[in-house]
Design goal:
With 382 residues, the chain is α/β, with parallel strands linked by helices. The chain folds into 2 domains: 192 residues, Rossmann fold; 175 residues, Rossmann fold. Helix content is 42%, strand content 15%. It is built from 16 helices and 15 strands. The strands form 3 sheets. Strands 3-2-1-4-5-6-7 form a 7-stranded parallel sheet. Strands 12-9-8-13-14-15 form a 6-stranded parallel sheet, with helices on both faces. It has a two-stranded antiparallel ribbon with strand order 10-11. Helix 2 links the parallel strand 2 and strand 3. The protein is globular. The model has no long low-confidence stretch (mean pLDDT 92).
């Protein structure tokens, strides 16, 4: 029996986010698509018995779950230092940079290690990550350059950006993600829409007010007459530090009912909000993949987004692309372009319908099963 061991620590951390969802969805599909004679086991930091059982429940069909001797923080620091703390040798897949990256000659038996780098924010937008996360990411990326057998990235855009800061040779593999399998309309969609207070028509976005996400220019664009008074709903927290979406809206002279943060939404609520939206706008200035636009595609929404290379690559012509601001502090022109694009889609029924059809077609290109099969092929090639 050939075993692929997956590091699943993201599933036992308290932080919600894309890496956690990526780890769960990919691992489930790795289990489901395991070739004959292969199985999947999990590696996790030193968690409680209750967390261990929850992990097994979330990954039906997983083989042994190896609990390592160190807690998550200590494990991350140990692997950053190259200490030998890890499971048995063999095929190892890390859905993040958290992995035992060290010289293969220090290990017994045959070892292959693949890690995943989801974006290049540690180099392009370090303030968004914070000092600690930035330093750890850069340190682990250096270890990956020395010791990883393969580095998975979600887009060619990330591969190109990484190539500017480090030489990974021919070890880079582009394997993207897909919408969560749990993101589907629930039976009580009408009741949820009423509870959420969804208006008849609205623009939807997802994100926070950190400068990289471009939410402030979008809010100011909503204040322009081209957007025809349509409200903006925001899936995500209202506040980051001292900045808030409602504060930006008030400064732009918008009434309270024009911009409404919905907070973090469970998948069933998010599905309802996506299904009933008029238009999805994703103004982010820098992404590694851009899962929100793929989720919008799944529901056949017309999509507008920035010309960030990763978003352009993922959309592949199924959207309306808006040129970004030259910098996050000089976004007046970006605001103008966003307002014009929104007004164009709202005013042109044929354009809106065409974008909806293109979105539905493009959504079929993203599958967790396909991603998992490509990971299996990657390890077979190694």
């Amino acid at each position: 029996m050939t075993t692929l061991r997956v590091i699943v620590d993201e599933l036992v951390t308290d932080e919600p986010g894309g890496a956690r969802r990526y780890t769960e969805e990919l691992t489930r599909q790795l289990i489901a698509t395991a070739p004959p004679g292969c199985d999947v086991e999990a590696l996790v930091s030193n968690v409680s018995d209750e967390q261990l059982q929850t992990l097994r429940d979330r990954l039906p069909g997983v083989g042994a779950v190896t609990r390592l001797p160190l807690a998550h923080r200590e494990l991350a620091l140990a692997w950053q230092s190259g200490l030998s703390v890890g499971g048995p040798p063999g095929m190892l897949h890390a859905p993040t940079l958290l992995a035992p990256l060290r010289r293969h000659s220090q290990l017994n038996g045959h070892q292959q290690v693949a890690v995943t780098i989801h974006d290049t924010l540690a180099w392009t937008h370090p303030d968004d990550l914070g000092t600690g996360a930035t330093l750890w990411t850069k340190a682990m990326a250096k270890r990956a350059r020395k010791h990883a057998d393969a580095v998975v990235v979600p887009t060619h855009a990330v591969a190109n950006r990484l190539a500017e800061v480090m030489d990974l040779g021919d070890r880079v593999r582009v394997i993207g993600g897909a919408p969560a399998t749990s993101l589907r309309l629930p039976p009580d969609a009408d009741e949820r829409a009423e509870r959420l207070g969804l208006p008849e028509r609205y623009v939807l976005t997802l994100g926070t007010v950190e400068p990289r996400k471009g939410l402030a220019p979008l809010i100011r664009a909503i204040a322009r007459p081209e957007t025809q008074g349509i409200p903006l709903l925001i899936a995500g927290p209202d506040r980051v530090g001292e900045r808030s979406a409602t504060g930006v809206a008030a400064a732009a002279g918008l009434p309270e009912d024009r911009v409404r943060p919905l907070g973090r939404l469970e998948d069933a609520d998010l599905a309802v909000v996506l299904d009933r939206a008029t238009l999805f706008v994703y103004p982010s200035l820098a992404e590694g993949f851009g899962l929100p636009i793929v989720e919008a595609f799944k529901f056949g929404l017309p999509v507008i987004h920035s010309d960030d290379p990763a978003l352009v690559e993922v959309a592949a012509g199924a959207s309306l692309v808006v040129e970004r601001a030259a910098s996050s502090t000089d976004d007046a022109a970006y605001t103008d372009r966003l307002a014009a694009a929104i007004g164009r889609v709202l005013s042109d029924g044929q354009l809106s319908a065409r974008l909806g059809v293109l979105a539905s077609d493009r959504a079929r290109a993203f599958s967790w099963r396909d991603s998992a099969e490509r990971v299996w092929q990657l390890h077979a090639d190694l």
